[in-house]
Here is the input.
Amino acid sequence: MIKVFRRFWKYLTAGANQKFNEKADPKIQLEQALTEAQDQHRRLKEHAANVIAQQKQTELQLNRQLEQLERLNANARQAVKMADSAAKSGDATKATEYTRAAETIATQLVSVEKQVEDLKTMHYTATQASDQAKAAVAQNGQMLQQKLAERQKLLSQLEQAKMQEQMNKAMSSLSETVGEDVPTLNEVRDKIEQRYAKAQGMSELSGDSVETRMLEVEQASQNIEAQSRLDAIRSELGIAPEVAPATAPAAAEPATSTATEPPAETPQASPGA
Here is the structure.
């Protein structure tokens, strides 16, 4: 029973997630993803800062122990020299005291040397962890920059997708019925063509009626009367009435020229006549 309930719950969850993804705004989801990536990078930097701080702290402790080790070495050498000098001068008491001081310093020296070795190991491990943290931060920073750069590309693609969807919807409304309250272009065109055809039919019917012919006769009479009135006004003003342009006369055929005969010569009278 529990197994069936779990499967049913997973089914409901998957269905709800699918519906949510279908209805969710991709722009908001993109911003959420980038915000999560930025928060993850911030947490990674904080963790890396803690690792680097531990490495720095270990380095400071190691340097301090090295300084103390050098100081103990110098003190131990000095105590041994002073004990040897006291023994050579015959002062056994001072020689014994310097020898005990040298032994005490040597014991501290051994302890500090062990601490130094442990700190060296810790510092080496901390240094490796610090380098890995720095590399992780740098790599994650590059990935974050790529995501931020890709954000503009995705937003541009999203706007193009929205514009294409609107264009597809507009083109679809030109040829498909989108609702009772919104006529399509085809419906409007059919309606206009129907009214135009009806108007033409009525015009043809009106043109063949007697009333139309009477209007044409009346209009012609008015035109003739107006022309006569204009001719009278021109006559009063001494302006010749306008003559309708005549057609150009046909070109006359060239006349055939008759050849004239030369005049006859008169005979001259002889001197003896």
Remarks:
- The chain has a mean pLDDT of 77.
- Helices lie at 2-23, 26-89, 92-175, 185-207, 210-236.
